[in-house]
Amino acid sequence: QNNDLAEVDFSLSSLPSVFQPFIDLDLKGIVFPAGNYTDSAYEAASFTILDQSDSVLYLAFSEYFFQTSSLAYYTTGPFNITIAEETCRYFNINTEIFGSIIPEVAKYSVTPYPVMLKLMSTEIPVISLQQDSFALEIQGSLEVLAVLPDSTTQSLLTL
């Protein structure tokens, strides 16, 4: 499987076990940046799923699959997002509105200009699976920029 950002390589991690009512097929799925297959820095741990006989198909994904996905997508950049008036019709914040929230911004911008937000992941997102939960931790930064009349930008603040 692949898309423009990442590819998935599935391989058998053990021979299939064939039983009377079912087949147990263990696949190891590694996600990597498109066109850049590399061995994973993560260790794939084996796990078991509870034996249930009331469904036709069971799928289970390990932290390893999500960790390699996180690394691949971090590497290719989709965790970096720019929000501007052109990309989001509900986004209509200008420096005047931002200045009323953060007074320091008002000092730097007397004329109201449109604002652009740049959200950037600064570290590989960490994904952890618990028995009844899925946690995603993203470390990042937010840069607020004023869009000037000549289409250049001026950084107002970074968080």
TrEMBL record:
**Molecular functions (GO terms):** lipid binding
Protein name listed in UniProt: Bactericidal permeability-increasing protein
Pfam families reported for this sequence: LBP_BPI_CETP_C (PF02886)
Q: Which PANTHER family match?
A: BACTERICIDAL PERMEABILITY-INCREASING BPI PROTEIN-RELATED, BPI FOLD-CONTAINING FAMILY C PROTEIN
What is the UniProt domain comment for this protein? Answer: The N- and C-terminal barrels adopt an identical fold despite having only 13% of conserved residues.
Keyword annotations of the record: Antibiotic, Antimicrobial, Disulfide bond, Glycoprotein, Immunity, Innate immunity, Secreted, Signal
The record's section on Gene3D superfamilies has: Bactericidal permeability-increasing protein, domain 2
**Function comment:** The cytotoxic action of BPI is limited to many species of Gram-negative bacteria; this specificity may be explained by a strong affinity of the very basic N-terminal half for the negatively charged lipopolysaccharides that are unique to the Gram-negative bacterial outer envelope.
Xref: InterPro entries? Bactericidal_perm-incr_a/b_dom (IPR017943), BPI/LBP/Plunc (IPR032942), Lipid-bd_serum_glycop_C (IPR001124)
Q: Which GO terms describe its cellular component?
A: extracellular space
What's a single GO BP term from this record? innate immune response
Could you tell me where this protein is found in the cell? Secreted
User: Membrane as a keyword?
Assistant: no
Positions of the Lipid-binding serum glycoprotein C-terminal domain: 23-159
Q: Is Transport found in the keyword set?
A: no
Q: How does it assemble?
A: Monomer. Homodimer; disulfide-linked.
Q: Which domain of life is it from?
A: Eukaryota
